[in-house]
Each structure stands twice: as structure tokens, then as C-alpha cells.
Description:
The chain is an alpha/beta fold and 411 residues long. It has helices spanning 18-29, 55-61, 66-72, 75-95, 108-117, 139-142, 161-179, 201-213, 226-236, 250-256, 269-273, 318-332, 361-375, 391-410, and strands at residues 7-12, 35-39, 99-106, 127-131, 147-151, 191-196, 217-222, 242-247, 277-282, 286-289, 304-308, 311-315, 339-344, 381-384. 40% of the residues lie in helices and 19% in strands. The longest helix is centred in the first third of the chain and has 21 residues, at 75-95.
Amino acid sequence: MKTKSKSIVMLGCFDTKGEDFSYLLKAIRSKGQPVITIDTGIMVSTANFSADYDNTQVAHASGTSIETIRKSGDRGKAVELMGKGAAAILKDLVSDNRVKGVIGMGGGGGTYIALEAMQPVPLGIPKLCLSTLAGKDLSCQIGIKDITIMASVVDVAGLNSISKVLMNQAAAAICGMAEEESDTINHPQKRIAISMFGNTTKCVNKCSELLKEQGYEVLSFHATGTGGAAMESLIKEGAFQGVLDVTVTELADELCAGILSAGPCRLTAAASMGIPQVVVPGCLDMVNYAQVPTVPEKYSNRQLYSWSPDITLMRTNMHENRLLGKEVARKLKNAKGPVSILLPLKGISQLDSKGELFYAPETDAVLFGTIKENAKGHVPVIEVDAHINDESFSIALVSYLLEMIDQNTDN
């Protein structure tokens, strides 16, 4: 069923790509879809339609003026600012519940602008970019967003028999996706986020089983940097009723320049949103690097373990655990909602168990002691005489989380 109050947003450089966007607009409208147009070009539009948001409005939304951007002659800065301005406009449109889908297209600059503009658009609203860069690594520009990249094959530089086919297909794709509306993302009841790693899989599987028995949907996020960032983003979008953060290893990668950092905002979303959360210092005994030769030289004499041909783990030391313990407590002590930290006294990962390579109770004790010292008076810290992958620890985790959710619901 069509949602008449919402539109597909079409954005791009209507100055250099006016003919192309005129064709794309016609293709989308031919399928009965209303369209909101945003011009991110720098010069005068060459399209055969008037933009709903012209480039002066886009520039203004970025904090400058189109005249200033033109006079600067700095193409890179212009692309950055127009992407920023389009993102601000899209954010407002989403807040006003006017967006059912977003489509953009272009070459290098146009692709950057489109992908930047799509960043504020939440999960579930389809986002598609027809791009000349579809075969390149766009992971930095896409980030954690559910953006579909479609190859333009030929340059977006005037209509031809190939570009017309692909534009029509792109129009069909975004229109079809836009009609598959679902509001389940906006209803977090009985939905739990949980972080996991290969070294905590046993714990997470048991927690998921117990939560599902209580009628909860459990969404697992692999703590690979993008996984943790995706979880944080969805928490901010209000997608969950509770968070079971079993695996915060990304904090160690952030500290030691590992390859799986989720950035400085990891472990902040639930605290700022007031969502009940139980946190475990899972896998803070390790930092992730690629192949052994890629490990920074200053760590070459450290305890290393080849987890797979392309992943090398480094055991964190007492100094790093002291810093990590302070960071965990710092990020949680001003939480707006209920939060608890559970410490598995017999080990925080599969490798940190008796007889395994990373087993170091004295180092774990530094981590635990620092967390308790810095969280005292702010966050409850519960010590559990179990290993992180013991069934008894999973039972304790789920019990504490459900209790906090019940209390939060009552309030």
C-alpha cells in the first residue's frame, strides 16, 4: 500500500548531470511515486525541472553560501559542504516523516555527496546510489548504513542506450523497495541487542537461547568495528528495549590501533539513551591485527596468537587493562538508565581460560580492580565466580538484564 504522505528523495548535481536527473525523475514519477528533489550541484541547474531544495538552500544548510563555495574554487571542499548540507536537509525531512526512499547517482564527487547525505537516514528507509565507483571500496563512505550501490557501467554524463536502461532499473528498484514499508524497527519492545565474538560465542548463544525462551528477539552484532558501530547506531535510533554488551573488545582495538576499532563512541549509545544495559569486559584481553607482519613494531615482542591466517591477536598487558578499566567505567557512570557491569572472575574470553594461551588472572585482576574503583558509587559491579563462557554466567547476565528491563518498564 502506498504511503501518500511520504516521497522518494532524489538528490544529485543538477548542474553537470541535469539531463540524467531529468530522465531519472521522469522514470520514478512514471511509477506513481511522489518525488522530493535536492540539487547538490555548485553551478546553475541544467535540469528541466525546478528543485524542491536548490543549491542555495543546500549550501546554507551546510553553514555557508553557494557564492562562497563558488568563489573558493576548492572542489574538494565544495563536495564536502554540499554533502553536509544535503544530509542536514534529509535529516529534517526524515524527522518530519516525509521520506520513503532516497536515490542519488554520479561519479566520484556525486557519489560522495549522495552517500554522505544518506548517513542520517535510518535503517529501513531504502537508500540507493547509481555510481561509477560501484567496483571500488566505498566502505568508508557507506559506513554502517544499509545503502545499495548499483553500477552505472558507463559514466553519468548524458543519456545513452545503456544509461537509460540502468536508470530505469534504478528507478524501479528504489520504488519497489520504498513500497516494502515496515515499522517494526520503530517498535523495540521485546528486542535485545547483544555483542559477540568468536571468543564469546558460547556465552552469547546461551544468552540468546534464554532470552528467546522469554519471548525476546535477539539481534547479535559481531564486534568487528563495523558491528559495534552498527549496534551503537541502532541503539540511538531506539531499536532496542535492552542491551547485553558481552563483547567490548573494540575498545582495546581503539586503544592499541587494532583493525577492529568501532571508534571513540563505542559503549556510549545505551548510556545516553537511558536503555537498560548489562556490560561485560568480554575480550578486553585481546587486540586484533591482520597478518603477523602487520602488527606494529612496538608490539613485536608481545604475546601474539594467530587466530586465523588473516587475524593476529595480541594479549593486552596490565597497563592497557588499567586504561581499559577506566574507560569502561567512564563511559557508563553517567548513564541515564539502569546499567550493571558483570565481571566473570575466571576469564573474559575463550583464550583467557585455564590452560589457554591468554590466561592471565593477575592481568584480569588489574582490569577488574580498575573497573570497580572507577565505577564505585556510580555503576553496580557484580563479580561472578565463573568463566565468561560458563552457562552459569549466561544465566546471571540474562537474569540481571531482565530485572532491569522490568524495573524500567514499571517506572
